[in-house]
Amino acid sequence: MVHLNKTCMKNCTDSHNIVLDGECFQECNEHSVQSTCRCPENRPYIENRTCVFNGSDQSQELHNETCVTEIPNADQKEYIYINKTKCVEWCPDDKPFICDSGIGFTSDCVNNSNNRGNKICLTKCPANRIVYNNVCISYCPKYLYEDYSFQKQCFDTCPKGTLHSNGQICHTYYPQTRYEYTSCQSQYYCVNTCPDNTYNNGTYCVEYCSDGQFLKNNACLSNCSEHEYIQNIEYNTERKGNECVQECKTDLVLYKGVCVDYCPEELPLLLNRTCVKECPPEKDILAMRRTLINCLRKFCYVDYFFEYSMCTDICAESEYIYNGSCVNVCPDRLFALNGTCLSVCPQYAPLIQPMAVTLQRIKQIYDDLYMVVVYTETMFECVDSCSYPYGIHDFETKTCVMECPDNRPFVLEVDNTLKCVQQCPSNELLKVHNKTEIRLGEENKTIEIVYCSSYCPEDTYYFNETCLLSCPAEANHIFNGKCVICTKFTLIEGQKVYCVDECPSKFKFINDKVCVDKCPEDKGNVINGHCSKCPAETPFQLEVFFDKDKCLKSCKEDEKIADYSCTNCEDAVSVKCIYSFQCDETVMINHDGKCLKFCPGGYVFLWIGCIRGITALIVSITFVVLSLTIGIYSRVTIMEYARFVHSCFSIPAEIQLVSDQYADIFFNKQQGIDNEVFETRL
User: Fold this and answer.
1) Residue of 327, 294, 292 whose CA lies nearest to 309
2) What is the count of structural domains for the chain?
C-alpha cells in the first residue's frame, strides 16, 4: 500500500508515480513545486527544474538535491564535501574519510566521474590511497604502515614494535586511457619484519650490519654467544661481514672459534673439522683432503681450493691404509684388500686383479690459475675369483686378465672358471674365436678371445680346426656351417655369403655366380638363367673403344677369339672377344678360335696344343721311337770314335778302360736329357 495526500491506495496515480518511503510524489518539472516533487532513481538530479541523470559541465555540484554551478556559502557555512548526493559542511561519522578525486585517479574515489575534482566522504579509503588524518592521500610524507587487516595508514612515527624501512611506492594515473602513466617515489615504511635482503638493526631495517656487528636470524648483534662460531658472510659483491653460526659450512674448518678456509701452520691437522696440532691415539691415521671452493668451472684460481691432513680412525671407502696414511692408490707391487695395501695376497683371496681408479689433480696453468684434471690409474687388488672385465684366470701368474698371454693363448672353461692354456685338450680341439667389447673408464676396447671347444657355437663357422666369426678371404663362403671355396653359386644374406648348389626360387637369376632376385640394368638379358649383357642369339661381347660395346653371334666375325677365362663362361655368358695374343698361353689354351682353361671333351693337351685322343697316342709312340733311335746312334758313334783315338795314339789299357766308362756316362747323360725334354713337352 502507498499513500498520497494522506490517503491510502493500492498504487500511485500516473501523475504522482514516484514512490519514496511508501509516499507518492510528482516527478519534478518546470510546473511542479520543488518541495513536493521527487526524481526517480535513474534520474536523481534536478537541473533547470527537470530530473536528469547527470548535471551539465557547468553544474556539477549538488545542493539540496539540486545541481548548481558551485556549492553555495549560505549563512557563512562552507559546504565543501559531498556525502552521497548532497553538499555537506563535514563528513559524517559513518563516512569519516575524505578522498580528493582531483589528483588524477579517475575512478578511485567514486565511480561517478562527474564528481571528479571534489572531496568525497567515504567509509574507507581506496586500496591505492593512504589514510593520513582521515584524508585519503597518494603519498605518505612520514612513515607508511600497512595494516592488511584494515588499510594503509600514515604516521609521524612508527608504532611501537615496528621497524623503519626504506622502499618505494608507485601509482598509476589515468588508468585504461591513453594518458595512463606510472610514477614512483621513495617511501618510508613501518614493518613488523624486515623485507628480503634487509636485516633488523634495532629499530631500522638495513642492507648489511655495521662493522663489529654479527648477523644472526636476520638481526644485527654486537657479539655471538658462547656456543656459537664466527663465519664470514657476503651481503653483496662489494660488502662482506660476519655471522654467528652453530656449525661452520662444510667447506670450512674451525680455528679458535672462527670458521676458516684451512688450518694454519701452528695447528696444521684437522680433527672433527677443528684445527689441532697432533692427532690423538684413537685417530692416528692421516687422510689428505682437498676442498674446492666456488670452483664451478674447469679452471680455478689458487685461493679457490686448499689441501689439508685430517685425523681419522678409518679411511674413506675409496681409500687404503698405507704407512699410517690414507692413499687413493696402493703403490707398485702392493695389492689392495679391505682398505689396506698388502705385499702378498692371503690364501682366501689369492688372485691378483687389476682395478681402474678415477682421480683428480690440480694442474697449474700459469701464475695463480689452476685446472682440475680428471684421470684414471690402474692398481691391483686381491680377489677370491676373477670378475668382469678381467674374467679369465691365468693360473701360472695367479692373475685375472682380459685376454691370455701369447705363450698361453687359448681359454679353457674348467668348473665354471676360464683358464689360460697352452694347448686345447684332445676332447676340445676346436678353437672358437670370439670378439668382446669391454668398457674401460671412458673408452671402449675390443678384444678377441680364442676358446677351446668340442663344437662350433652358433654364429661361428668351421675352418682349419677353428670356429670363426667370419670366414677368411681364402675360403670366404659358408656351406653347412663351414668356410669353403665355392664352386657353385653364392647367396648373399646381410653380411654373410653362402655357397649353394642351386639358387632358391626367390633368387632365380644368376649374376656372376651370385643368386639375385633380378638382373642389374647393365645385364638385362638372361641366358640359361644367367644375367648377361648380350642376348642368347648374339652372346659374345665385343668391346668398342669410344663407342657402345657390340654383341656378336661369333667372335670370328671380327677375326678374334672367344675369351673363356671368366668365372661362368662355360654357360656362354659374359664371354668377350679378344685378340689371339691376349690369350695367356701359360695358363690358357688357344684352340679353335677360343681361349680355354681346359681342352674340350675328346681332346688331350700336348705341348703343341689340344689334340684328339687317337692322334695324341700316335704322336707319342712316334716320339718315343725317334728318341730311342737317336740314343742308339749316339752310342755307336762314340764307340767308333774311341777306337779311332786308341789306334792313333796307342792308348794304354788303363786309359782304354776309363775311356769306355766315360763313353757310357756321356751316353747316359745324353739319353737322360732327351728323356727330360720328352717328358717336359709331353
Assistant:
1) 327
2) 2
Residue 100 has pLDDT above 80, yes or no: no
In this structure, the answer to whether residues 619 and 675 fall within a common structural domain is yes
In a domain, 583, yes or no: yes
Domain containing 549 equals 536-598
**pTM of the prediction?**
0.44
Q: Both ends of the chain: CA-CA distance in Å? A: 153
Question: Residues 578, 632: one domain?
Answer: no
Contacts 24+ apart (CB under 8 A), 252-257: 253/308, 254/229, 257/229, 257/230
Q: Indicate if the pLDDT at residue 126 is higher than 60.
A: yes
Q: Is residue 545 part of a domain?
A: yes
Answer yes or no: do 584 and 639 share one domain: no
CA distance 556 to 4: 142
* Chain CA centroid to CA 210, Å: 50
Any domain includes 16: no
Residue 200 is placed in which grid cell? 633488523
pLDDT, one tens digit per residue, over 567-604 is: 656 556 778 888 888 888 888 888 888 888 888 877 88
Half-sphere exposure of 41 (CA within 13 A, CB side): 3
Are 555 and 593 spatial neighbours (Cβ–Cβ below 8 Å)?
yes
Percentage of the chain exceeding pLDDT 70: 76
Over residues 4-56, the pLDDT tens digits come to 887 888 888 877 888 877 888 887 776 565 556 777 777 776 666 677 766 54
Rg (CA), the chain: 59
- Does a structural domain hold residue 458? no
User: In whole angstroms, what is the distance from residue 500 CA to residue 522 CA?
Assistant: 25
